[in-house]
Amino acid sequence: MRFLLSLFLASFLVFLFWPYYHLYRLDDALGRPDPAALAPLVDLDAIRDNTKARLTWAFGMRDTAPGVEPLRWLQQGLQRAGEVAIEDTIDLNWVQTQLRDAVSAATERRPAYLLAAVDFAMFESWNRFIVRLGRLGYGESHVRLHLEGLTWKVTDIVR
Question: N or C terminus of the chain with fewer C-beta within 10 Å?
Fold first, then answer.
């Protein structure tokens, strides 16, 4: 019984620190000049989908608002153009640039390290982990990781 309890406790502690290890891996990949080092740690499709969702929300108008119907064509056109731009723009190079810029803005250490920029990191659920780079209210950035298989992957970057 004691062995099973110890095994459970050890597994639980490993699971708790697992995303922090992936933050270390992400920090190491950001230090490399080639953005391809980020590939195993990033889910580009999820980042694109989350960015599209924010774009849809930003361009969204309530159907009950007066005068909305004449502007619906403009809203739909902007939304389509934004989706095409997202597909063309968001790649590993973009992710590397966004993360490096967020880290540089969040810490005064040079060279800027991701781990030095982390102000807050916590589980949102058993398979989602949120990281805040920089102090709350001072232009912070958020990075969301999602457990995919055995790897925590970046699925959203909000600057």
Answer: N
Residue 54 lies in a domain: yes
pLDDT 10s digits, 92-132: 999 999 999 999 999 988 888 999 999 999 999 999 999 99
Structure tokens of 40? 């195993």
CA distance 127 to 144: 11
| Beta carbons within 8 Å of 113's beta carbon, 6+ residues apart | 27, 31, 103, 107
Report d(CA 26, CA 151) in Å as an integer: 11
Output the CA torsion sign for 84, 158, 36, 34. Answer: positive
Contacts for 41 with CB less than 8 Å, ≥ 6 apart: 22, 25, 26, 29, 151, 152, 153, 154
C-alpha angle 97/42/23, rounded to 5°? 85
SS3 90: coil
6 in any annotated domain: no
What would the two tokens of residue 70 be? 């004449």
Give me the domain span that covers residue 29: 15-158
- The enclosing H or E element of 95 equals helix 92-106
Tokens of 157: 């970057």
Question: Is 2 within a domain?
Answer: no
- Count CA atoms within 13 Å of residue 127 on its CB side: 6
